[in-house]
């Protein structure tokens, strides 16, 4: 790579910061806030007495908790507990932030034609990629600095705070490299995002499998293959292993070098994976807006089914450890609290897991509907509307899959979550029971997607609103109970009032009410979309 190929990098960094400043600022501040907030709630969870120490030992030895949250090293220190409870989660989210940020500044800009306009001036071949990587690296380092500073300010040791900040930042930098490589493989920003998010999901699943396995098992070594596991392996506040940071640095350098090499070998505007030309005439099944939408989204749907299915099946195998949990009354009580107060620990486990999965599945629905916005921005929706296709038909083509696919995903995930227990106990009825529990929670997903439809039809500039609602639901489901949120805040999500079977008794009122509200929002969105300008 010559110096000429990097000409204009500084200018493009400034442009990236100007164009995506809110993207980076919101991500960094939200992720940073998790750690000091959790630290402030430490004593409410681990008391400074024999009972608190007993709880810490029980949490550290429980394979289910390890699989969900990662390896614990020293839960009797504030910093060690924070790293275990939210450190791995923040590292995984930092990976998502960095990968998406790089793709926004590279493949998405190239697909939109703005990179071609910039490169018509004195801009080097690799300047856009270098600027995106520098911006993402800077955001990750800023996140690490905020984490280290705030944890030190809360009285935790400086060395542990620095190790935590650097470990989380390094995880983000690795996936900035992953995003850079994905940007070279395909000409579609959507496909590149799918590749990057698939890599994050695979890394998290590998980490859960390694941490949930028994001590001394060969599966434990698989953790070294997961980049989101390297942050906990640095062991902040528990005898820091600084040498582990070399691993993400070396991998990041290798990924960046690979991305630059691939960019040198591909044509501008194309990916290394060539796009095959379609047939001259459309098949009978492709002569409608709905068929077109399904053709565009089928890859994302299939990968979502595969990803959530594998994750649910693997996590479901952890249901065989509850006899160990039941021996510790304090730990069992805390686990019941996570599971909505269910009497049986297995029921508490399923309630807790569905609470996490249902929010992530809502993101799939929002992503499917967001395809319509991207089609409008690119001008392709206007071409479709220039035919005999009506506004209503076009919106229906994208809204119906966005509503139905997440519900199907909920049912599939719930059933696969129960498969290990059903096989072990010879109880096929467990599959139907958990499928019903998932369906009862699905109105929350429908409400989020319906809100997105209403926003798209009535006020497109507020498209961030349904994403913000979903993000708030993630925060509540993941750490709301740990931080001691008031009940009114815990209920302030689309899922807060829905019955959490089998922990709660079935109540049809919130289910019917949320479905009716979703129907009203859908009608409002359809009405607005039929009347607003397509811009």
From TrEMBL:
Record keyword Transmembrane helix present: yes
Entry's transmembrane regions: 82-106, 127-149, 161-182, 242-262, 301-322, 348-369, 398-419, 439-458, 465-485, 505-529
Top-rank taxon: Bacteria
Keyword vocabulary terms for this entry: Membrane, Transmembrane, Transmembrane helix
Keyword match Membrane: yes
Protein name: Exporter of polyketide antibiotics
Organism: Nostocoides veronense
